[in-house]
Sequence to fold (126 residues):
Amino acid sequence: QVNVVESGGGSVQAGGSLRLSCAASGLTVSRCSMGWFRQAPGQERQFVAAITRGDSRTYYADSVKGRFAISRDKVKNAVYLQMNSLKPEDTAVYYCAADTSVYTLNYGRESVYDYWGQGTQVSVSS
Fold:
């Protein structure tokens, strides 16, 4: 049974930082492409960042480039999202997702991900 669990969310002032964690069981994160998505109230879920299986290439949404960093720890079987210089518009529920396919064309699409966590709330105040 696969389980993906996010943690590390919270409330922070604009300009602050948070580090989200995604712990996986039932799958090996280094053999998957892993993504982070977010959903703000009243909005559709949107892509934030991804790290590919194998060569660990990273992809970011334009809105977070230079501020967020995705990484993976093979020993802990976990993925992280370091978020710096947070803005009020980063407020959302953040989701971790796992893509178990061998080849993926578009890491920004929700449909390529097979397993999702329940999400963790990030709130940024001005």
Remarks:
- The mean pLDDT is 96.
- The two ends are 41 Å apart (CA to CA).
